[in-house]
Amino acid sequence: MFFFNSLLHELDVEPIIRMSVPRLQAFFGLVQTFILEWLIGALIAAIYNISYSKGEDTTQNYF
């Protein structure tokens, strides 16, 4: 509990954490977590690429 409470800035997560979770539900939770993290990473990469390419000629060869 201490880890999750400190991770979420002292938001009390004790009422929503269950110890008896079915395996299928745990699997779907892991899959959803990976999909969400991939989408967030893709969004960050897209924002980075857009901001990097603005105002620069990306066709130049620097070698």
Automatic annotation (TrEMBL):
It holds the Pfam family DUF5676. The keyword Transmembrane applies. Keywords: Membrane, Transmembrane, Transmembrane helix. The chain crosses the membrane at residues 26-48. This is Uncharacterized protein.
